[in-house]
Amino acid sequence: MSASPINTNVLLPALPILVVICGATATGKSSLALALAERLNGAILSADSRQVYREFDIGTAKPSNAEQNRVPHYLIDICDPTETLTLAQYQQQTQELIATFHATPQIPRPVPLLVGGTGLYIRSIVRGLRIPRVPPQEELRSQLRSLGQPQCYAFLEQIDPWSAKKIHPNDPVRTLRALEVFYVTGQPISAQQGEVPPAYPILQIGLDCANVEALGQRIHRRTAQMMTAGFVEEVAALCQKYGADLPLLNTLGYQEIKHYLSGKTSRAEAEAAIVLHTRQFAKQQRTWFRADSTIAWFDADCPDLLEQVWAKIQAFLAP
């Protein structure tokens, strides 16, 4: 998808705004964002929870060097694979970047485009989630895990009944996080949460396939392209450098290839598993984003998608 020449009558932003491009994996968010960013003199802020990590390239569908040279990209390759980027850290870095773009005296202003499929990343910015600034406490978590989930949940019911009502008794991840925040800060996590929406206007564009099978075909093609591009070699190199027990190597795509490399499956079986698991993940993403009534949806397979979205942006900018 390439940007067509800009009509001199189009509206370009004089005031700070944010454009969000979201949706399930393989719906073409990156290519649309590139074309829009060129028209808007904008920059792309990644909202992908794995593209923040260096060396995890093919399996995360990270933008190529050529694409990153076309338009400035941010929040890509900002962490080593052995580090952990928390939601609070992501939110802070993204908010600071947006503020920098909004503070420029240039008119028309360059537009930041928040692009990706990690729903919680996007929600943290669009809704201004209040997130306790408590980094993971591994020693504390280990101690709590040794007690077992039933006991941990019982503790949560005592110290933060409101959160306990929202967290399932069999959800150890959220239970541990709530306990962790309480023991570090002395306050329930429920008292530290909420929303402070940003003051600037936000336009959210969602991409989806009207036909679910069409999305499945997109996922199949992308997986095949990843394999051809050297995905197996990427995973092998990462396993050799960091060890097969690196947590990131247990995520979608990487885990399936790791099983192939260890002889548990064939290459064809690994590829088929990636397709299946990616389709399941895409279904979860669609459910998440569809719950947000503020997103304007467009068919990813529409032949004039760029022009339709551009018209939506022009209407958004109109006084």
UniProtKB/TrEMBL annotation:
ATP binds at residues 23-30. It comes from the Bacteria. Substrate binds at residues 25-30. It holds the Pfam family IPPT. One of its GO terms (molecular function) is ATP binding. It catalyses: adenosine(37) in tRNA + dimethylallyl diphosphate = N(6)-dimethylallyladenosine(37) in tRNA + diphosphate. Keywords: ATP-binding, Magnesium, Nucleotide-binding, Transferase, tRNA processing. The keyword Nucleotide-binding applies. Residues 48-51 are annotated as: Interaction with substrate tRNA. Belongs to the IPP transferase family. Catalyzes the transfer of a dimethylallyl group onto the adenine at position 37 in tRNAs that read codons beginning with uridine, leading to the formation of N6-(dimethylallyl)adenosine (i(6)A). This is tRNA dimethylallyltransferase. The lineage of its organism: Bacteria, Bacillati, Cyanobacteriota, Cyanophyceae, Oculatellales. The gene is miaA.
